[in-house]
Design goal:
Strand order of the largest sheet: 1-2-3-4-5
Radius of gyration: 11 Å
Distance between the termini: 12 Å
Oligomer: single chain
Structural class: alpha+beta
Largest sheet: 5 strands, antiparallel
Number of strands: 5
Helix content: 25-40%
Order of helices and strands: EEEEHHE
Strand content: 25-35%
């Protein structure tokens, strides 16, 4: 999945696959890549445009979607 690299203290890059509703996040602290399943497309746009991706992740994503480490 292609990821866009962003300005964030917590997150290095984010990507989204709308066909499979999968969000992918690469974290700065350990360079791990995680995928979040059944992530709605409208929330992708909300996440992508949020002022703080890290705060949005902690508030809206972490613990709310099935997560799988892929890298």
């Amino acid at each position: 999945m292609d990821r866009e690299y962003i300005e964030s203290t917590m997150i290095l890059g984010i990507g989204y696959d709308p066909n499979n509703a999968i969000l992918e996040i690469e974290f700065k602290s350990n360079n791990q890549v995680w995928q979040y399943s059944d992530f709605p497309e409208h929330l992708w746009y909300e996440f992508e445009s949020s002022d703080s991706k890290g705060k949005y992740f902690l508030r809206e994503i972490k613990g709310n979607y099935l997560e799988t480490r892929v890298g």
